[in-house]
Fold this sequence. Notes:
Layout: E1 5-9, H1 13-24, E2 28-32, H2 40-44, E3 48-49, H3 53-58, E4 62-65, H4 70-77, E5 88-91, H5 97-109, E6 113-119, E7 132-136, H6 139-144, H7 146-152, E8 155-160, H8 165-193, H9 198-224, H10 235-252, H11 257-271, H12 283-286
Helix pairs in contact: 8-9, 10-11
Bound molecules: NADPH dihydro-nicotinamide-adenine-dinucleotide phosphate.
Residues 10-15, 33-35, 38, 66-69, 72, 75-76, 92-94, 119, 122-123 line the site of NADPH dihydro-nicotinamide-adenine-dinucleotide phosphate.
Amino acid sequence: QNQQSVTVIGLGPMGQAMAGAYLDRGYAVTLWNRTASRADALVARGAVLAPSAAAALEAGELVVLSLTDYAAVYAVLEPAAGALKGRTIVNLSSDTPERTRAGAEWFAGHGAVQLTGGVTVSPAGVGQEGSVILYSGPRAVFDRHRAALDVLAGVADHRGEDPGLAALLYQINMGIFWTAMLSYWQAIALAEANGLSATDILPFATDTSDSLAGFFSFYAGRIDAGDHTGDVDRLAMGAASVDHVLHTMADAGVDTTLPATVAALFERGMAAGYGADSFSRVMELIRAS
Length: 289
Ligand code: NDP
């Protein structure tokens, strides 16, 4: 096994960036993708397009998977399962922790080992300094392939042995990401309805998002300690503020799904009698019971 060789299966924007990063570092790169034409630019740069997923697996020990989800993983690899024995599968396809754990078992049943990855960067960040990919699964496998993993991100961060852990941390991040980005689209819609562009409000939006890290760390310790003292903020104040946001949005004629959902949660907190406590006490409504 030549350590400088890798197979990449799945050539969406992410898989293409990863295969490109390996070519940049002089790796021998074998590719497979359902839509073969997505390999064209990489083949022009020296990668080899395998005729089948099984042939791609047979090209070498180390296989990077970058598919939409685990349903796609099975769609691609079930017909090629006979070629999985002895392979290390760096599975960077995102899905739920439960599905990634089941995936690790499925690969083990075919004589392969899965290292789960959660990619926290966009395709442009692949291979860049400071970019992070979270991994979980067998530490020894992570260590053995460390050089190849370091090609994909500035920081290859192994978090633990549980194959679901990287997926869990990834989903925690993505829960923040998608709702925060939606709140940004919401802000832009309100701005536009009032004659301002996304670019006009960028400095304000950036200041607000930059301030969030301070709020996260302030509340983390308090929430862990079960402390919802209303000394710096009160839910009653928050509920009134959220109501202003909701009505400003409604007056502007923009969709109110997101602010109405936030307002409903604050109202439930008020109805539960939390008005004099910090708005962090709505945690009690969100937390698994
Ligand atoms: P895409 O969904 O664009 O590409 C996924 C790949 O999956 C393509 O190669 C596609 O093949 C293949 N695929 C999907 N369904 C099937 C199927 N049923 N059978 C065979 N092949 C299938 O994803 P990205 O490249 O953007 O991302 C890959 C992974 O990385 C995802 O899990 C994503 O969540 C994660 N990720 C992506 C980020 C991003 O910014 N793009 C950021 C962080 C993580 P075909 O080309 O034939 O359609």
